[in-house]
Amino acid sequence: MRKALFYLFISLIFLLYSLNVKSDNSIQLVQDSSTEYRIMLSDSSSPTEVFSAQELQGYIVQVSGAFMPIADTNEPLTGRLIFVGASAIARLGLKIDDENLGEDGFIIKTIDRRIIIAGKNPRGTLFGVYAFLESIGCRWFAPGISGEVLPIIRNITIPPTNRLERSAFNYRGFSCLSPDTYKNPEWIDWMAKNRLNCIMIDSEFYNEFNSALEADIKLRSLNIGVRFEIKDSIANETKKIKDFLVRYPTVNILEIYDKDNKIELLNKIVDSINMPEKAIYIRFNGKNVTNQINMKKYSYSFQPYMRCYRHFLGDKKCDINQKQISVLNDLLKSSHRLCLYEYYMASYEQNSLPFPILQTIFEDIQYIKELDKFDGAISQCELGNWGTYGLNYYIFSKFSWNPNDNLGRIINDYCDKYYDSASEPIKQYFGLLEDSMEKMEHFNYIDPPELIINLIDENTLKELNIKISRAEELANDVIVFDRIRKLKISLEYTTMLWQMLNHYIIGCQYQANIDKDRARENLKKSLEYGENLIKFIFQDVNQGVFIITESFIFDYLEPIINDIRNRLDSL
C-alpha cells in the first residue's frame, strides 16, 4: 500500500494477563513542578534501558523542575509508575507484540495511572523515551546542548495514549571521514535522539573511532558498520576482514568495495567471509550490471554517484537519474537486498555551498521505500558543515524513520522552534535557496564550486542577506542569535566566492574584448574578494559551518588568484 502509515494507533498490543483497567483519563505527570511518579525498571534491565530511564528522568527535570526518582526494583508495583523497557512491563504480565514492531519499534501506552514505554529491543526502548519526550515538546535539531530546544513548563499532562511506532528501514544512519565527526560523542547522541541506528566508518579510521566512542555507542545499542576497500587477493582480504571481526565482534554491518567495481571478485570475498550473522553489502557505484553473474544471494549498497540532486532519484523527467534507475532496476532483479548510500551534504569538492535539497531527500526516501528491497539508507554527514546542511540532516533522520510524515510540518517545526521569533525570515531564506535550485536544469554533487554562479544571481544574494539581517533583528536570545550567525557565516562565504568568480569571469571577458579599463576594474575586485575569502576561510573554518579541503585552497583558489595577478600585470 503506497501510503502505508508507520505511526499506527492500535488497541491490542499486549497480552494482558493480570490487568483489567481503563485508560480513559489523562495523566497529570507533573503538577506545579512536582510529581508523584517514579520510573520502574527490572533486575534484568539492560544498560541501554537503564540509560533510557536516566534520560527520561534528566529531561523531565530540565523541562519541568520535577524530580522523578528511579524506583528500586524491589519496591512494590503500586502508586504512579512509568515502566521503561520490555523486562519492566513483563512484571505487569504484559508482553511486547514483536511482529508489529519491526526493527527498533516501540510502544507508548497509558494504563490507568501507569505509563509504559517499551521497545522490541533496548534501542527501541531508548527511541520510545525520546519520542515520549518529543510529545511534550523536546527537540534535538543539532548535536550538543546548543542544538536542544526544551520547553519550560510547570505542568505536564499526558492524554490517553496507545501508540505504536516502527521504523521504515532496518538501517538508518550516517557515514563520515573527518575525525572531528567520528570522535565526537555529541554526533552519536544526536543520532540516537533522532532515531538513527547505524554508523558507517572506514576500516582505516575504526581504531580511532572505537577508542573515542565505544562506550557511547554501546550505551545506545547502535549498529556499527565498517567499510573495507579491497586491494589484495581474495585470501588476504578475507583474512584481514575476519581478523578484524574477531577483534571487534560488535561490528555487525560490513560494506566492501573496490575502485574498479569488480562485482564477481567482491561476491567471492563475501562467500569466503561466510558470516551469515553479519549484514554484508557490496558497494555498487552505478555501473551497468548486465552480464554480472551470481548476484541473487548477495546484498548491495547502491551509490548513485552521477545522479542529479535537482530531481529525486526516481524522477522520470530527469534523464540523468533515469540512467541511474535503469541500473537500479537491474539490481532489484538480480540482488538479494539493497541499501542506499547517499551524499545529502553535497560533496567535499563543493566545499559546503548551501544546497537545501529538502524536497529531494523527502521524495528519495519515499521512492526507495516503495521499492521494498531496501534495508535502509546511509548518508554522508560531517559536524564541520552542520551550520550549512543541518536541515538536510534533520530531514533525512525524520523521513528515514517515517517516510510518510509531512515535509512542510517538519520544516515549520524546525524553523519555529530552532529559530523561535526569527522563524519567518529563516523560512524565507531556505525558500529562496530552494527556489534558486529549481531554476537549474540539473546539478550533481561533483560539480565544481563555480556552479554557484549558475545557482544564485546578485539579486538573490541581496535578498538572502536581507532575510538574515531581519532574522538577527528578531532574535530574542543569544542562543537563537548564534544559530542565525552560523547561517550568516555560510552566506558570507558563499557571497565572497560568488563575487570572486563573477568578477573574474567578467574581467576575463572584458580582457578578451580588449576593454582594459573594465577588465582591470573587475579583476581587481575579484582579487580583493579572493584574498578576503582565504582570510575568512582560515578565520572561520572551525565554526561548524563549512569544510574546506586542501585541494580547494591550493588547486582551485590559488590558481585563480595567481591567474588574476598575472592578468593584471599584463594590463
Structure in words:
This protein has 571 residues and is an alpha/beta fold. It is built from 19 helices and 18 strands. It has an eight-stranded parallel beta barrel, surrounded by five helices. A six-stranded mixed β-sheet has the order 1-10-5-6-4-3. Helix 18 runs antiparallel to helix 19. The longest helix has 35 residues, at 478-512. The radius of gyration is 26 Å and the shape is globular. The model is unreliable at 1-23 (pLDDT under 50).
Number of domains: 3
CATH secondary-structure class of the largest domain: Alpha Beta
Rough outline: globular
- How are the strands ordered across the major sheet? 11-12-13-14-15-16-17-18
How is the biggest beta sheet arranged? 8 strands, parallel, barrel
CATH architecture designation of the largest domain: Alpha-Beta Barrel
CATH superfamily of the largest domain: NADP-dependent oxidoreductase domain
Give the class from helix and strand content and strand pairing. alpha/beta
Distance between the termini: 68 Å
Helices, by number, come to: 19
Q: In angstroms, what is the radius of gyration?
A: 26 Å
The poorly predicted ranges are: 1-23
